[in-house]
Design goal:
Length: 94
């Protein structure tokens, strides 16, 4: 089997300029790290520290993408995802 050359890997060119991203994590260091990484993409970033706050943020201003921690207080990431995907108005959020 031939070795893969990482320089030859292709990835789709995705333009996130103007996109809105919600980062949800109860670990503040994770939030800061993800936010710092994504700031280079010229997109709008909001954060939430638990599932309940995430749902409130989504109801206030629907993001294009949600990066969601699984293990959180008050409402788990699984519960947040289930709630997002069960609503016709939010089910298309990635």
């Amino acid at each position: 089997m031939p070795e893969l050359d990482p320089s030859q890997e292709t990835s789709p060119n995705i333009d996130l300029k103007g996109a809105s991203i919600l980062i949800v994590d109860d670990n503040l260091q994770n939030l800061e790290l993800m936010q710092a990484y994504l700031e280079e993409l010229d997109c709008s970033i909001t954060t939430a520290v638990d599932g309940v706050e995430a749902i409130e943020a989504i109801e206030g201003s629907q993001p294009d993408l949600v990066l969601l921690d699984v293990m959180m207080p008050r409402m788990s990431g699984f519960e947040v995802c289930q709630k997002i995907k069960s609503q016709p108005s939010t089910r298309d959020i990635i």
